[in-house]
Design a protein that fits this description.
The protein is of the alpha+beta class. About 40% of the residues lie in helices and about 35% in strands. It has a single domain, classed as Nuclear Transport Factor 2, Chain: A (Roll). The mean pLDDT is about 85.
Length: about 170
Amino acid sequence: MFHAKGNYIFNFDKRNKIPMKTKASVTFLVLILLQFHFVGKAQPAVQDSILIKYIDDLNRKIDKAVVAKDLKFLNQHYGEDFVFTHGTGLIDSKKSWLENIQKSKGFASRLHDSTIVELHKGIAIVTGKLTVGRLEPAKDGTTKYSLRYVRVFALRKKNWEMISHRTTSEWHH
């Protein structure tokens, strides 16, 4: 309690005889410690949300680079050990996938939906839906199809690289 002149009045709690000044000091100290505790806990959440956005954006940029046939960008963001497991069961390496992109007539679009990024130490797992538009029909006449996927990114030498794409389901429109 404060006196009108700003001096403390030592008012004892009759139950446990602790001066009010001491109680106030302890309460203040506990509040300060709790603040540091929660600030320390909140910081990784902020960093995680920034990294989640970065990985989600990178995931989308990779497919924009496939459409644009930007092999320099793709080379930078596909790991040397990249494995692409298609919905048909076909498996591409980094080299064979980039050759297919370069030789094909190409894609009109590769658009993501419902992406979720899960972070682990140096690893990010991305799940989502990708809708693909072809510039020319496939052998079966398909020009548009969608798929669900799981992608794995690894942080290597300060660069996030996709090391795996696995199509889990695919359907044609």
